[in-house]
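Quarterly update from the structural biology core.
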Amino acid sequence: MSREIYINVEQHEKRVAVLDSKKIEEFYIERADTVNLVGNVYKGKVESVLPGIEAAFVDIGLEKNGFLYVTDVEKDASDFDRLLGEEGGEHQEKREDQKRQSIATMLKKGDEVLVQVVKEPISTKGARLTAHISIPGRFLVLMPFDNRIGLSKRIEDHKERDRIRKIIEDLKLPKDIGFIVRTAAIGASQKDFFRETRYLIRLWQHIRYKAKKAKPPQLIHQEYDLILRTARDNFTEATVRLEVDSKNDYRRISKFLRMTSPQLRSRLKLYTDRMPIFEKYDVERQIDKIYNRIIQLKSGGYLVFDETESLVAIDVNSGKSVGHKNLEETAFRTNLEAAEEVPRQLRLRDIGGIIIIDFIDMEFGGHRKTIVKTLERALENDKAKTKILNISSIGLVEMTRQRARRSIEAKSYQRCPYCGGRGTIKSPSTVSTNLARQLARILSATRAREVFVTLHPGVASYVVAPERDMIKQLERRFRKYIRVIEDPNQHMEEIKIDEKK
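Predicted structure, tokenized:
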């Protein structure tokens, strides 16, 4: 097995693809016009307290007020168990007789609070907030309002767990803060732990100092962008190569690794070929399939994804999968393949919330149990927290997957003006990014001095906007002229490029 990471950086978009044995397993996208909020720390002001739902709305300077639930404020509750759970740790059982405090006794309108975004605004909902701050590093997560030390359950070797515990004890960390040891800490030296604990403690001291002086609403600490989050969370010892096509981001990652994991710097490569990096490594073709509603399975069966406001429905169909002795065996084999593919698709599309999987009906209870176990095993490596209910007699599986951000589809598509919102089309941002790639490929090969591009007016106005400088940048790069023509009768996703000698 060979795990590789490829990063494509363009003027308005950053994309990360994580491949395992040349097959895409994770895909992330970040655009200049969509700022990441998850992980950011704000000093906010309580706008209203609603005892009926045990929550408060907090102004943190965004368009919509953030939502702060009572369990995210309680002193006796923290995100320690939640975060440890995401790292594969064991949750501590909560006492049922433990009396929960009322939100009205803890907060009142006008109070100033230090909060962190755990879920970005989605649709009509504001950001989900917590007052239990957590500061992630490469090997550790600092919990300033907790004093426990936890180790990821995915660190299975007992000798390694004992070694890490001994290192943590020897570091003589402050007694009033806690740490979670992440899976990436396997094999890390005492120097690595010392360096990171000092960095995280200094960062928290800076956040606390800045928060004391700030007037709400104000951003106190901003989480890393996609590039450095990838270097921190995805680039581990299991990765044989990380390749990026931007000199600036290559230097940023190299500097970050110098501070955190010097042994990985030799695996960092700068991509310099003329062919786009995602085309070179057959990533672009695989990404295109992410947006497909229908996913074909090797057996001949297929999956159908339908994302709605309230849930995501996944239908499993046998299709051409008929090469088995009987209907029960065909259904079982197709469902088995689907149970392995669905978790991969959930990661790729970054789908969260309530998910309903409609497997093909099976008669044997043993087959149904095997399908659930296969699904659970395939979800073990998912960084998002998941919960699965048993398969029903008619083949339905209900599950939930932690949702912190909008799905890949929601980021890349907008409501279709042609069908009244019943479907989706690519957004002007996505079409213009595709246009830039096509133009770069054509301009690098053509001898024509002038190229004519015909677009829908909505896309054309986005492309030629002065603040983006998209067309002029390409003209300067290839020393050729690009003429943009508007055609209101053209589909918003359509791109026409004509060369003139």
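Residues 89-97 have pLDDT under 50 and may be disordered.
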